[in-house]
Specification:
By secondary structure, the chain is an alpha+beta fold. Helices cover 38% and strands 24% of the residues. It has 3 domains: 47 residues, no CATH class; 179 residues, Ribosomal Protein S5, domain 2 (2-Layer Sandwich), CATH 3.30.230; 173 residues, 2-Layer Sandwich (Alpha-Beta Plaits), CATH 3.30.70. Helix 3 packs across helix 4 and helix 5 runs antiparallel to helix 6. The radius of gyration is 22 Å and the shape is globular. About 11% of the residues have low confidence. The structure holds alpha-D-galactopyranose.
Amino acid sequence: MRVVSRDFRPSQDNSAAARNRNPQNTDAVQKIGHVHGYTWRWGTKRILVTVEKNSDHLQQLTEKFQARFGGEPMVVEAPGRVNLIGEHTDYNDGFVLPAAIQFHTTVAIGPRLDRRLIIFSQNYAEQVEFDASGLPSVARKHWSDYIVGVARKLQERAIPIRGASLFVHGDVPQGAGLSSSASLEVAVCRAFLEVAGQTMPSVDVALLCQRAENEFVGARCGIMDQFVSTRAERNHALQLDCRSLEYSQQPLPSDIRVVICNTMVKHSVAGGEYNQRRQECEAGARFFAERRPGIQALRDVSEDEFRRYGGELPEIIRKRCRHVIAENARVTEASGALRQNDLGTFGKLMEASHASLRHDFEVSCPELDVMVSLANGIDGVYGARMTGGGFGGCTVNLVRAESVETFQKKITAQYEHAVGQRPEIYVCTVEAGVRRVR
Ligand code: GLA
């Protein structure tokens, strides 16, 4: 890899709060401005400036691509996600219920006549170059690992990676547990496929991107993030069976909002704790497999079997298993509750999920616990829990639409008071999966 340039031009105000979007609240809008491809709205009743991405941001990205590389790029974008329930179940062949959100990684790509792969990241203000026929075989702990990993996996499937120029920009908050990595992988994968003139079923795209992260980057993540980034539908949560990859789209009631609260504590799936949890779950699955043939993963262990044999397990493994087995049951119950518009039940399941992640799976942290307990004390909140891998990052909250504004104000003030750090609050729109936008 060659780092070609570092470009320290001041960038737009790219804070996630500034990108927060709440189209339902336009009644409060007083002024509208257009800056750097974002529509800024100032409201009388609102404390936060909300910003909508508009089509200008694609135009701007295209122009920046052209200024740097020349030519007409194709542009692809893939969303980040929030998981409503079903945490640390995906790599146990279990169930999850995530939704794609309004933050994306956008990739502009154009073919080159030579064999060079030139990649500029606007977020890192850095350009790197590779020879497409001799891509690095090991990760270097650099943002480009995700891209190289995907390119190598495509090459392994005999998809030609020709010379190309890529301009990459992401507005998924990084280290927040909202799948900035998966959205980068999926966007880049689709972009490479577009320039190669090839198509691939979206399930295969998700699997390929997961393999790139598992085998090249070295994070042993499950399939949830990549899958929802490819297959999500607007205004729907996606219920996924992570073994069979069967899924169903579940409409979200129009009178609730999915609100994400960022503790501002950084999390990383590449960190050792995540892989360690996975090993502990595998140890648990092996234990149960010795007692009942046919068990391949914790997904196959019933609550009854856990009660019968669980006492023989070392305490740590027993706690990890208890979380996964109960969490799988919660996802099934929560999906049913969502279908029946029973948000009270859904909220209680979120609460139980958080308690289990905190006490049994031990992936929460004090800031996440504070954020959840504050949310539970605010009117109009059906449920709150940590979301994603944990060890920092965000909580997900289901909030009655009419209570969202008060919720934002209260949780911001109360969290800042309790923790001494101002949180970012994102009122989400629920978006579709990866698509070519130009
Ligand atoms: C990360 C991983 C996912 C999943 C979650 C926890 O986001 O990438 O595969 O395991 O953590 O539910």
